[in-house]
Every structure is written in C-alpha cells, then in structure tokens.
Amino acid sequence: MNSFTTMRRDLDARWQAAAPRERLIARLAAVFIGLLLLWLIALAPAWSTLRKAPGELDRLDRELQQMRAMALQTQALKQAVPVSAEQSVAALRAATARLGPAAELTITGTQAQLRLRGVPGGALAMWIGEARQGARARPQEAELQSGPQGYSGRLTLLLPAAAGN
C-alpha cells in the first residue's frame, strides 16, 4: 500500500505542476475516452439491435406463416379420408409414371421405394406431394444427391396399409 500512496503523491505533484492548458487537454481527453467507452459498451450494441429489428421481425413473421401453413396442411392430412392399399399403390404408380424413365418404383409389403436418376427438383417435389396426399404414404428414409441433371438416389416410403406388387 505504501508504493500506491507514493505513486498517488507523484501523480498529484505532476498534475499541480502542469500548465492550465495541459490540464484542460487532459480533461478533454478523459471526457472523450469516457464518451467513446460509453458508446462502445452501452449505445452501439443497442443501436445495432434496433437497426436489425425490423428485418428480424419480418423473417420471424415469414417463419410463423410457414409454420401455420404446415399446421393447416397437417390438419387437412389428419382429416383426409383413408385410402385402401390398392388406391395407395395406384396413386404412387400414377405419380411415378409422370416422372418418366428417370424413376423406378418398387413396392414390397407396406414399403415403397423410389429410385431416381436425374429427376428435376420441381418434379420430385410434386411427386412427394402426390405421394403424401394421394397415396397417404409417409417418408421413411431418403438418400438423395443433387447433380446437374437433378436428383438421384432413393426414397423409401411407408404405405398406409399392406399392398402387393
């Protein structure tokens, strides 16, 4: 504590020995540094948050709308009339036929497997929608790769009831 007291006395002596102009400059520098720290620690982060808030709110609103649309779709699927195994298989085959020769459907028991070779993303999305709504099939497993011609790989779906080939 003795060295601290000595250092304090030395600083006081230097301050008293400084010219009034030097004291003014030191005070202004201290005020400037204080204001800079106040800006960096308290005001800048709050200002940044306020600036980003409208965009973030828009993004969250879009996500909420998507979630509400998915909830409505889920309710519609829950209330949909069940289809027989034959209707389910027929719907899957019809949807697969629209994909053309780039898709091959195999049905075994309660599973359907779709093999793809270069199917465009839009066509695949439509097929999945038809499989979900028309055949009441649920995705079970997917191994897809995106390439220049489209998607390749396989999709495994679970059918609502036992179905034959």
From TrEMBL:
Keywords attached to this entry: Membrane, Transmembrane, Transmembrane helix
Keyword Membrane: yes
InterPro entries tied to this protein: T2SS_GspM (IPR007690)
GO terms under biological process: protein secretion by the type II secretion system
GO cellular component, one term: type II protein secretion system complex
Full protein name: General secretion pathway protein GspM
Pfam families: T2SSM
Organism classification: Bacteria, Pseudomonadati, Pseudomonadota, Betaproteobacteria, Burkholderiales
Membrane-crossing residue ranges in chain numbering: 24-47
